[in-house]
Amino acid sequence: MKESDLDALLDTAFQQCESLGHPLSEEQKWILRTTLKQATRINPLDQLTPQQRQAFLQFAQENAEWKTVILNDWLESRDSGTVQFIRDEYGIEWLNSITADDLAAYRDSEAVLKIGDRIEVSSALWEWVQENDNEWVSCTVIGLNESDNAQETSCVVRFDNGQEFEIQGLYDWNRSNWR
Predict the structure, then answer these.
(1) Which domain of life is it from (predicted)?
(2) In the chain, how many domains are there?
(3) Domain span at 142
């Protein structure tokens, strides 16, 4: 349903309430409009392919000011790297429509690991590497130490060569180092 259709439907409902002698206050109308718009809103990240979404979420994780970085790239005609597709395929209106809640909805649903999951980890976890020299290595999650505090959650992974490594701050400060 388009926003204009939703507004028209709400206006009709408000008029019916008034005609029946039960007018709503402006605050009640605002609450209903806001709640329904949030409930019927589609997350813009749903439009991305899984690969685009992964690239975008990783970019947003690594760049606290991700929206500003992308907009500045556009203004200065710089390539935006792994998220160039946003400018090429979706545009500024789409970018501006993304909220923190949109990002959180995907981070929360895609970031939960289970024992046995195959993931890739960045070589930046165990050695100092330049950003362009970063390598991704496959491994299997063999242990989880979950905590209510994201900084204390960790996991143990086993590489194909049998070596094991513990990732501290799994969902917090080390989130950008695994996928």
Answers:
(1) Bacteria
(2) 3
(3) 118-177
